[in-house]
Amino acid sequence: MVVSELSEQDVNRLFRALADATRRDIVRRTLVTDVSVSQLADSYDMSFAAVQKHVAVLEEARLVTKESRGRERMVRGNLERIRQAQRLLDHFEELWRSRIDRLDILLAEDEPAPPDT
Amino acid sequence: MVVSELSEQDVNRLFRALADATRRDIVRRTLVTDVSVSQLADSYDMSFAAVQKHVAVLEEARLVTKESRGRERMVRGNLERIRQAQRLLDHFEELWRSRIDRLDILLAEDEPAPPDT
DNA sequence: ATAAACTGCAACCAAATGGTTGTATCAGAG
DNA sequence: CTCTGATACAACCATTTGGTTGCAGTTTAT
Fold this sequence. Notes:
The structure is a homodimer. Chain A is mainly alpha-helical. Chain A has one domain: Arc Repressor Mutant, subunit A, CATH 1.10.10.10. The first copy, chain A, has 5 helices and 3 strands, in the order ααβααββα. Chain A has helices at about 10-20, 20-30, 35-45, 50-60, 80-110; strands at about 35, 65-70, 70-75. In chain A, strands 1-3-2 form a 3-stranded antiparallel beta sheet. In chain A, β2 (about 65-70) and β3 form a beta hairpin. In chain A, α1 packs antiparallel against α4, α2 (about 20-30) packs across α4 (about 50-60) and α3 crosses α4. The longest helix of chain A has 30 residues, at about 80-110. Chain A is elongated. Chain A starts with 7 loop residues before the first helix and ends in a 9-residue tail after the last helix. The interface of A and B includes residues 82, 83 and 89 of A. Chain B binds a DNA duplex through α3 and α4.
């Protein structure tokens, strides 16, 4: 189980960070190329401080990292975190498959349902 | 592009709905088997109304559907919505790949960068 | 017909979110 | 050294969120 690295709190932060269009856009841009905070701020119709807060949220969720370069902080998207989110969603798929399996078993049996677990 | 069905608002709701441990658990349970709202409420250490609100959030995000059965409302997880979330994350992966491609091009060239697009 | 179980919804509350402005720090340019 | 650009951070504010209690409406059971 590769996902056990993540606490429930971590998962909360991860999905919450993705639940904002500006932040998703920042992640997209910084996955393609490193961008400074002020470059990002120029792109959105809000204050520098607001963009900075979004970056901070993404950083706490570890969806981006920051690296000092002179007086700028370059923001870089962290693909590994995206992959962790994907793995979490994969688990939901597996659960769903288990429902199908249970149905199959029921259909294949003419005995009463087996003791649970 | 299969994801264009989703507005930014839809995506916000989708990820926000997933950003709560109780709601994720409800989705997991209702993906495996249909469960009534009161059965769900029994499982968590909060009021019935609180659980009902969580279900409502999931319903708005279309992560679950409800179906009347007698006096109960059976909650059923909607895998398709999970898959849409996965596709959204896949797009992030593709963007990241484009970064690599760009690097490859730069390394392979000794001419100045080609006109973009 | 009554009572009990299941649900929906409104009103309320504390805390978190997403934005603002203002001030301070820090690195680079003149 | 001084000015400017880039960032950080605090204080503040409106709205949303996640919880509560209370009440009303339906469906089932007695």
